[in-house]
Amino acid sequence: NGSSVLxxxxxxxITSGTLSGSGDVTVAGALVWSSGTMSGSGRxxxxxxxxxLSLSGGTKQLxxxxxxxxxxTWTAGLLQMTGGTFTNNGSFTANSGSTLTCYGGGGxxxxxxxxxxxxxxxxxxxxxxxxxxxxxxxTGTVDVQGxxxxxxxxxxxxxxxxxxxxxxxxxxxxxxxGVGSALSGLGxxxxxxx
Length: 194
Known about the structure:
The model has no long low-confidence stretch (mean pLDDT 95). The chain contains no helices and 27 strands. The chain is mainly β. The protein has strands spanning 4-6, 11-14, 18-19, 25-27, 30-33, 36-38, 43-46, 52-55, 59-62, 65-68, 71-74, 78-82, 85-88, 91-95, 100-106, 110-113, 116-120, 124-128, 136-138, 141-144, 147-151, 156-157, 160-163, 167-171, 176-177, 182-184, 188-191. The strands form four sheets. A nine-stranded parallel β-sheet has the order 2-5-8-11-14-17-20-23-26, with no helix packed on it. A nine-stranded parallel β-sheet has the order 3-6-9-12-15-18-21-24-27, with no helix packed on it. It has a seven-stranded parallel β-sheet with strand order 1-4-7-10-13-16-19, with no helix packed on it.
């Protein structure tokens, strides 16, 4: 249950089972997560500069804090949170021609972007309402370069959303844009909520 650091030359792969405990796990190399569970009161931290996170494959269950200070990509599969929080302080790219879904399975969940979030590819990336949902909160920058970013579970923006000409930003429920926030670009913004 103590904290641990996986060095920059290590590739850590999670394909099933559970990573758990009260200690922080810092990944200075690569974390490849295709399915399985992260739980416990500790954090999983992707280190700045050298750390990378790849989300692919099937269903990934997040029941703890996953903090990206490095570079993260999401190309396939479902991300289910049950009392989980994803904090992006680095760069996060959702890139797929198919649907990527982040949904809540219970508990208090959130995707908090304080870094640079990019939506690429022709598919839809959704942060959806299921049980308690996963709100998308932005204090960094969001760039919708292609496909659709669907914020179906709400959230709060206090910085910048940019929607490029090939992109669509969909607000399916009420979403809060705070003082000083900005929404710009030549793409499509659809308000389909209440």
